[in-house]
Amino acid sequence: MDKFINPLLFINIYAIIITSVNELVTNLSISQTFDSSHLFALTTTLSLMLVFRLSRAAVRWWDSRMMWGLIIAKCRQIGCRIVAFKTTDVSIEADESKRRRLEVLMDLVVFAVTTRCYLRKVPVVASDLVGVVDKR
User: Fold this and answer.
1) What DSSP assignment string belongs to 84-115?
2) More confident residue, 68 or 39
3) Does the keyword Transmembrane helix feature in the UniProt annotation (predicted)?
4) pTM over cut 0.85
């Protein structure tokens, strides 16, 4: 709530000052001459600055979205390769190999979920990891 009070207070004080000055100028009968070319230059400059700022924000958002998609795609590729992987080591039994592969797959899921929560700055919700973490 404190984030909104200071800007709101500033805007209200600014509006009161502008209104007071306008009333003072009107009451004193001072001729108000206003050259619209200054307003045009100011609004054009402000609009260009706003467009460029929004454009940069959109590019950053899109780049981060592409990177997140790349992380998920790589996790899926690693998962597919782990599932298809067969060990040639005869000293490791089939059940042990399957258990190890399953552990790595669970770690991949935990990595993707925790990375998502870290990037969004939200806590990890236990319901996102049901069936993965509770099996250990």
Assistant:
1) H-----TTS-HHHHHHHHHHHHHHHHHHHHHH
2) 68
3) yes
4) no
Asked if pLDDT for residue 30 goes beyond 60, the answer is no
Number of domain units in the chain: 1
Burial of 109 (0-12, 13-18, 19+ CB in 10 A): middle
In a domain, 105, yes or no: yes
* Position 14 in a domain: no
112, 75 Cβ separation under 8 angstroms:
yes
Assess whether pLDDT exceeds 90 at residue 76: yes
Domain of 90, in residue numbers: 63-129
Tell me if residue 63 falls in helix, strand or coil: helix
Q: Which of 65, 53, 79, 82 is nearest to 119 (CA)?
A: 65
In a domain, 108, yes or no: yes
The per-residue b/e assignment along 63-89, b for 16 or more CB within 10 angstroms, e otherwise, is eeeeeeeeeeeebeeebeeeeeeeeee
**Distances from the Cα of 102 to the Cαs of 4, 20, 124, 125, in angstroms?**
49, 72, 22, 22
Query: How many residues comprise the chain?
Result: 136
Q: How far apart are CA 136 and CA 106, in angstroms?
A: 10
